[in-house]
Design a protein that fits this description.
By secondary structure, this protein is an alpha+beta fold. Helices cover 25% and strands 47% of the residues. It is built from six helices and eleven strands. The protein has an eight-stranded antiparallel barrel, surrounded by five helices. It binds protoporphyrin IX containing FE (HEM).
């Protein structure tokens, strides 16, 4: 946190920097069929969240993802110090997914990297750190702006080979719930990122304002996401 603030201060004092999101938020169902299994009559279980991750039916959320994430081109990591813990079958199933990091590996590819502790479905203990758990297709997501918030919604996620091994049930390539991401930047940077995405290019240049604006309004960024999700669900 202190390191992130120091970095934000250093970036804010750098003239002519590129478009950057210092913070963001996500809303994510994890995997609907798994939630149904856990909360249903088979597993009779529940889930809990810790740290910077919360749950508001029907999605987990993080309102304090810490960057920075460069937008020109898209590169960097957004991380949250928090966990999702699933329990069921009277404690026989007990899986914790923690330290969620969204790593942009290329302008089109997002990797969800996590630590996993628990057992496989066959009760083999698992305690793996830095697992590239899911891979996301940024090009297949919906990009839009809400003021100074860049929204990348419906990022399709599939299980990697390492994720399949660590989670120990689903096969590689299994679809998890799509991820909705909101990034705090400036209006101009958000607009440029969308333009660049639409044109199939990366963001061309600058706008130091994006760096400065990136540190504000974390709750507001999540609020934009949740408002849009509610609108989509018609509630
Ligand atoms: C007492 C031990 C367990 C029993 C009796 C059990 C039973 C079952 C059954 C009957 C299903 C099929 C559910 C359906 O088709 O609707 C299932 C699915 C599943 N089980 Fe278990 N299970 C046990 C332990 C575990 C453990 C330790 C894990 C580890 C994570 C696990 C992970 C899963 C997953 C991921 C599914 C698929 C859920 C989905 O439909 O997406 N189970 N289990």
């Amino acid at each position: 946190m202190i390191a992130a603030l120091a970095l934000a201060a250093a970036l804010a004092s750098t003239p002519a920097a590129g478009c950057v999101a210092e913070t963001g938020a996500f809303a994510w169902g994890f995997k609907e069929s798994f939630r149904a299994y856990i909360s249903g009559s088979i597993a009779n279980g529940e889930w809990a969240t810790e740290g910077g991750i919360g749950y508001a039916t029907p999605a987990f959320f993080a309102e304090r993802l810490e960057g920075p994430l460069a937008l020109d081109p898209l590169a960097g990591t957004l991380a949250v110090d928090g966990a999702l813990r699933f329990t069921g079958h009277e404690g026989i199933l007990d899986t914790t997914i923690s330290d969620v990091r969204l790593v942009v590996e290329s302008p089109d590819t997002l990797s969800v990297v996590v630590d996993i502790r628990g057992t496989t479905q066959d009760f083999v203990p698992v305690d793996s750190v830095d697992v590239p758990f899911l891979t996301g297709d940024l090009a297949a997501a919906q990009w839009s702006a809400d003021g100074a918030t860049l929204l990348i919604e419906g990022i399709p996620l599939t299980l990697t080979a390492q994720g399949a091994e660590a989670f120990g049930t689903y096969p590689e390539g299994e679809a998890f719930d799509p991820l909705d991401l909101a990034l705090a930047t400036s209006e101009e940077c958000a607009a440029r990122a969308i333009e660049a995405r639409t044109a199939g290019e990366t963001v061309p240049l600058l706008v130091a304002a994006g760096v400065i604006a990136g540190g504000v309004a974390i709750g507001a960024v999540l609020a934009v996401l949740l408002r849009r999700r509610r609108a989509t669900m018609g509630t």
